[in-house]
Design a protein that fits this description.
This protein has 129 residues and is an alpha/beta fold. A hairpin with a 2-residue loop joins β6 and β7. The protein is globular, with a radius of gyration of 16 Å. The N and C termini lie far apart (37 Å).
Length: 129
């Protein structure tokens, strides 16, 4: 039997829920889907890059900390293909994004740029040519 998988959502715990939602909506153009509460936990659902991005505040009792991108395990960035990297970088900068790497040749036919995102994450923009 073959398992047929498709990513439906990614769920992030956020130090500042509202700031994270604002970043993904304002800088990357995520579409607001809904704000719900489940078992006392707020979940903001956005649509970004063809999937749902669910954001929740960190549990009140949890002692979570933001780790630098290079020192974390697990997911440390989201990557999105764009048709024109320079234009996408310029637009994101105009919306307040801070890039840590730009116009990097990651492969013979791929250029990338990385911007900082909330909670120690990064967002990678990629252009294939």
């Amino acid at each position: 039997m073959t398992i047929n998988l498709a990513i439906e959502h990614a769920h992030f715990r956020c130090a500042d829920l509202e700031a994270a939602a604002q970043f993904y909506q304002h800088v990357l153009g995520a579409e607001f889907v809904r704000r719900t509460e489940h078992n006392g936990r707020v979940i903001i659902t956005l649509r970004l890059g063809g999937i749902h991005l669910c954001l929740s505040p960190k549990p009140a009792a949890a002692e979570l900390r933001v780790e630098e991108n290079q020192n974390r395990l697990g997911v440390y960035h989201l990557a999105f293909l764009v048709p024109h990297l320079e234009a996408a970088v310029a637009e994101c900068k105009q919306r307040g994004a801070r890039f840590v790497l730009e116009n990097f040749l990651a492969a013979p036919t791929r250029r990338v740029a990385f911007m900082e995102a909330p909670d120690g994450m990064q967002v990678e923009l990629m252009e294939d040519f």
